[in-house]
Amino acid sequence: KKVNMKSAVFATLLATAAAFAPASQKASSTALSAFEDELGAQAPLGFFDPLGLVADGDQEKFDRLRFVEIKHGRICMLGVVGYLVNKAGIYLPGDISMDGTKFSDLGSGWDASTAVPVAGALQVLAFAGFLELAVMKDVTGENEFVGDFRNGAIDFGWDSFDEETKMAKRAVELNQGRAAQMGMLGLMVHDKLGNVDSLLPPF
Asked: Can you tell me the mean pLDDT for 92-97?
């Protein structure tokens, strides 16, 4: 009876595994076929989704994740430039608060973020909130692609480009944003460790 019971359990496990395996493979195949030609799916990795976030091939979910990726990339590109500019000793002129604290007194990196007076930090937060809620999104419904926030007001010659040039420029932004996210993370970590100066060229 014990042998029969073990055999029955083993057979049940095999049947369960067999039942789930095709579904998983089908989901991965669906995602690959759905997104392998999307912008950003390029050599050497191609379509890269190790966590299976869009394994079901859901286009709406993919567009949402792409929106977040582009936005975070843009923020980090600004962040890396801002970090390096301050690290080079370049600051806005004048005072940041009424008590006489100058922008140049803040330093850079984590020290600067904690040295900003509360009133100044609240202004930054309010401005970021305004951009998030009213500007950095498709307000007018005129966007050509995910991440297009021109809203009929800003163009910079975009409409003069052919489709191939547009795709190339979008790919450049996406890749630069991905690199900036990794770069920003590296700067934050090494700034906190106190050895960021050894990684940067002398200014």
From this structure: 89
How many other C-beta atoms lie within 10 A of the C-beta of residue 171? Answer: 13
C-alpha 120/C-alpha 196 separation (Å) is 26
Cβ burial 108-118 (10 Å sphere, 16+ → b, else e): bbeebeeebee
CA dihedral 167, 173, 175, 179 (to 10 degrees): 180
Distance of CA 201 to the CA centre of its chain: 26
In sequence order, the 6+-apart residues with CB closer than 8 A to the CB of 36 are 46, 47
Cross-strand partners of 42: 46
Question: What is the rounded CA–CA span in Å between residue 71 and residue 73?
Answer: 5
Q: What is the mean pLDDT of residues 60-81?
A: 94
Band (pLDDT 50/70/90 cuts) for residue 28 is low
Q: Can you give the pTM of this predicted structure?
A: 0.78
Three-state DSSP class for residue 95: strand
Give the pair of three-digit tokens for residue 14: 């095999």
Query: Which residues, 6+ apart, have CB-to-CB distance to 10 below 8 Å?
Result: none
pLDDT at 97 (0 to 100): 83
